[in-house]
Amino acid sequence: MATGELLHDAAQALARRLADEFQVYRFVEAVTLSGSRTSGIETDACSDIDLCIYSDDGTFPLAERQAIIARLGGASRASLGLTFWGDGDVWFDALTGFEVDAVYSSKHWIEEALERSLHRYQPAGGYSTCVWHTVRNAQILFDRGGWFGRLRQAWSDQPYPPELRRAIIAHNLPVLRAIIPSYRFNVEKCLARGDLIFMNNEITWLLASYFDVLFAFNNVPHPGAKRLLEHAVRLCPRRPPNLEQHVTKVLRLAGLGDPAVLAAIDDLVDGLEELVKGEQGLAD
Description:
The protein has twelve helices and six strands. It is of the alpha+beta class.
């Protein structure tokens, strides 16, 4: 068996052992595996094990979480009880070396997020449909009463809503450069001021909105921030010519603080606007 397959099997085995531990607690409704290990692209040495543990209120006593890790052999390094991006733990499993990222979420939070996207068609400034992608592609490791399976069937196993597609494009396309406070306009001001920190912040958000439009245009739920170019090439049959080269050029010039980044942004956005304008009604 190839090394990649062995690593995949070992990661799956650890994820299932963790799910077995979590499901002992009666308040846990479901445990799912997501992230790169369910994304359809090849994992690598940096790929972690992304677990989501669902309960009614999203809480899980920290002492019990520490006990689970200890029972499975401990951690070589751990950051537990994190609250920076929601309640979660990150640790490196001492026996296998795998990085584990566990998030503790309430059922209500995930239901509300899907409601906003798939029923109310509310876009965001980038990453509008990441929750939908996560639920749709998650591997169910434990589902006590079938709640997660019903959630996926009700909300996620459906065609891309055309109303949501139009809303995401209408929200994210103009902010690239069409309006005065666009990301491109702000990059130009940053260059004049020599403010490279804020300029690179604007580049980050420009790309977030750019890819939000591209995935929506292709009727593809957004796969998340990591390895976006790989996902775009794999999932988006309709995309601007030379996408990878244009994105790489923008990032390289932005890092140098080179004024030529403005022309590179224009080339990048030109391709996306032409793509969208080719479908009547989307760019109005």
